[in-house]
Amino acid sequence: HAREPLHRIQRWNGTHFVRCNLASLGLIVQLGHDGVDCASPSTTVQALTLIDITGIHKINIRFCECVPSPRTYVQLLRARWWPATFERPQTAVTIRTLRLFHALTVQAKVNAYDFHNALIRMTDGSGTQLPKGRYHEFSRVFRFYRHLQMVKRGGRGHNEAGINATSLGELAIECLRCPQPGRNLPANWESAPAHLQFLYTVFLSMDANFKLKLKNHKYQDIELAPGWAYFVEESLYQAYLATHEDEDEEIKDCDSTFAAIDHANMPSSKRFCINGVGAVVCARHSFFRASGVADLPAGERYSSMTYILLSTIRILLSRWRRLIISYDIACQFCKNFLKRMRNFPVEFQVEVTNKEIIFIIPKFHLPAHGASCQVRYSFNFIEGVGRTHGEGIEANWSETNGAALSTREMSFAARHETLNDFFGAMNWRKTVSTGSQLASSLVEASDMVKKQEKNFSDMKQPFPDNVIDRWDTMIEAWDLDKRKPNPYEEPVNETKLADVQLELSRQETRELQQGAVSLHEMTASTFLNIGIQLQEQQRVVQHRDGNKDDSTARKKVTLQEARNVLQHRIKNWRIVQAVYMPVVSTLIHEAELSNPSNTTSASTPSEPEFEKLWMPSDVPSHLQRTGLASGLVEKEKRLREAECEEALHEIRRFIRIRMGLRHYKSVHVDGPSQKRNTRARTIIQNFTAKRDRQFDRYKAARSALDALDPDPQANWRTRLLPMQYKDMVDPSGDDEDKAEVKGKKGKRQAALGEGRREVPWIWCVPQSLTGSIPNQDVMSAEEIHESMRATYAKSRARVRRWNEEVLLLLEEMRRSVAFLQWKASLWFSRANGRSSAPPDIQSGIHAYALRQAEIHQALSQSFINRWNPLLIKLNLSVEWPTG
Asked: Which end of the chain has fewer CB atoms at under 10 Å, N or C?
């Protein structure tokens, strides 16, 4: 067992086998000669605790004292045992244990504490002879192991200047698919034709994660790789924050309620010194960028996020023409961005002359924004972005969140090193999976190009060429200048109830001027409008009455006061109703005689919210001509149609707000804090209640409209369809109230984007083309064409985005191969580095460099072998670089 000192043996004690270690049997491990006897062994036998994947062992060792002989820690390392200290080591960890834990922690986010305790259980599961814990020693050893692995893979061991000369971001694993001048771009890329310049666009995505916090333990620690990988250099960052901490406040979103959640859930406890992290990744491939991550001590502020963005741009992107930045609040962040940049030190300022910077909102976040943002900042309608969605950073957070609870307990420096390691592991996995990812993406894009081109051809066929040309000109003008008319917006807005009320008032004024006599000083349209308002007030009071939470005495008093006000308004309204609708008094009397216990009659003032008002739509059709004032039915019909459209608009608005709130809560709020979760749920419930009241309003208005105009061919029926509760889903067709999406089909449906979308009917209702004159029935050919302009523009955009995606994927294939070949050449050039190093070190340097070069060459060739048959099948081609 001299070469296998970690074998576990058992000894027979007369009745059964018991565990026995080799040290107790006299085994002494001689170091320095790979198990061969030493001519000058040390006279001292030293006890060593060795942590291995089989458990924690006690062994006896003897160091070599030959002249010359390696230092003691070198002898341990050559035995593949990593010492916990360099001087007089008493604990060591086997290299295979460190490799196993490294693989487990980056893949499954296993923390050192649990791994160490598992080794203790493996050593003695009975608990009768537990070894002394070595958690702190193991953690310290692994930090050094992980650090040296990162600098070795970054090529610092091949540099004469050594580790301390490492530059900012140098150890990050770079995205092989993104454009990198001098590495994977053709020599003439800057002079490419204008229609192909988009192929060299740099796509970045930025976001914050408030689950990666850090407790305020006030540990004193030293960061081993400050700013060398993904986190920015901390001293520079803190110096910047110290001079800019009062310049801005928490980021607010446009036309949404994210800010309410921000203020309600920003931790106020002193337990945390870091509230989260902000990061920048490449938007198409989700690689974490070098110097693209930083802590957020005071929330998601403009100053912090701008610092992170400029840090990664200045390090990696010295030459670029077009930059796309995806951010969930891009509509606000882009304002004064250049002005904020000028407040940074000169080395952070980016030269923007003859360059284009475009801010876009990620696709999943976009529906939570208002209508003004949903076209201007949409990936779907921006030229040269392909099918980029900008949401890849969210998938990154879902993986790193698995380590949130363990990293928040670490020291400041250890947390940075751990997260840097996670980011690097994720980047490398994306590197080796490039072959399969780009292949599957190209197959999908090629199929969708054919489908969307056919759909687009069928859709535009009925329109004259001059109309198509006019629309194309409008789209191209908007692409160049977003201040031009927006071709993707509907030509008119929804008909508002207030618009119809104003038009009816004007019509009544004209009738009076022509000699018509009003039956009452309150006009008929005002009378009907008050009736509609009373019905809405009834629904509000009914909601209060049905709310189980409103059970306190004070809330009961408030409810009764609301009922008193409602009853008083109904009573006054009945007086005018008797003038315009004399038949109603008879109908009320007959209803009371037929059902004396009917609570909806006018004789039960205790609950006026259930009293039937008897609008013209409630009167039987055979009594409408003789029992109602002339024109009253037509006026209510016009008001009800506008009320339906207004309610539908409000339902859509509340769904967008609620969708944004639910996503924000799931990403940034869900966790152990009951207080923050309760606040978030309360806000969501309030908007849900508002949405449901508009649902009831729509149903009531449409029911009245159906009674007033029963013609099945009526124009309003094509827009105002019967609505069910299940129809109130977000624009992608997802039902937010479902706890989970079941089955593969459901998951695919939930992930549909604009390129293959089936939009729910409430989001594609044809807009009313009547403006403030809702009784217009005939549309001209020009108006018909204009009503289809947005549909044409979106169909055209889908075709162009899929075609761009194919070209981008082909270019990314070429760039991936070119980058790997460049990387292989770089490692070949390092093979003869460090000429001043001892011969044994030079031998290791040479072998490691050739091994790394071979890995990158093999990856490059495997990608080509995988893609060539697919390209032939799809009738596509790529000119592979020759390296």
From this structure: N
